[in-house]
Amino acid sequence: MEQLPTSHEPPAHPAHPAEATSNPNSNNTEALSPSPPPQPPTALTPGPRAQAFTTLYQKTLKATLSAIPYDAFAECFPHIAAEAPAALNAYHGQMVSRLRSLALDEFDTILQERNVVHHLNALEDIIADARRRQRSYPSPPPQQPPHTLPPEALLNAHLAPHLASQQSLLNAKLQTVESQNAALVQKIESQRREMEGLVGDLEAAVADLEGAGDLVGEEGEKLAGEGREVLGVLGS
Fold this sequence. Notes:
Largest sheet: none
Coiled coil: 174-205
InterPro entries: PMF1/Nnf1 (IPR007128)
Structural class: mainly alpha
Main location: nucleus
Number of strands: 0
Order of helices and strands: HHHHHH
Strand content: under 5%
GO biological process, one term: cell division
Oligomer: single chain
Radius of gyration: 63 Å
Subcellular location: Chromosome, Centromere, Kinetochore; Nucleus
């Protein structure tokens, strides 16, 4: 029995779905969110002096506002005080409260604008550092009371400033005299050199005169001899 030939066909593969060749353009840019605002600076903690300053201002403000009592305020408005005392009392309280609020707000504004707390805290640091330095150095020895000092020390203490001023004055006068003496010494030396020059000139002149006298004497003797010879010739 013959079998019919069977044809082996390759199995049919399912077709792959076509992929999109292009994608639609999408805008990926996102809006940048603004940076958060900086944190407000931390308020400085008031030191002892800053607290004392604030307390003093509050006490002074309280004392000032307490000088406006309701009775004195009502005397300014006698008709309203008689007709509506409750309303006037409420208005007085509101006015005092408003004045207190305005004064405190203005005080806080000045503290912030002038940086008062920071400067007072810096003053605290300077004082603390000075006290620490003072404690680190040995304390000076106690001074002797003035009434226990000897008379000589008390006299010197009283006369020392006057004597110092007089000594300065005398030193100035001494320097002036020394400069004048130096000028006089230079003048005397100059005059001495001039006199020595004149004496030398006079000695030279005297020497010349002496030489001339000797020469005249020799010539006179010659002339006298010649005169005697002439007289002898004439007499013979």
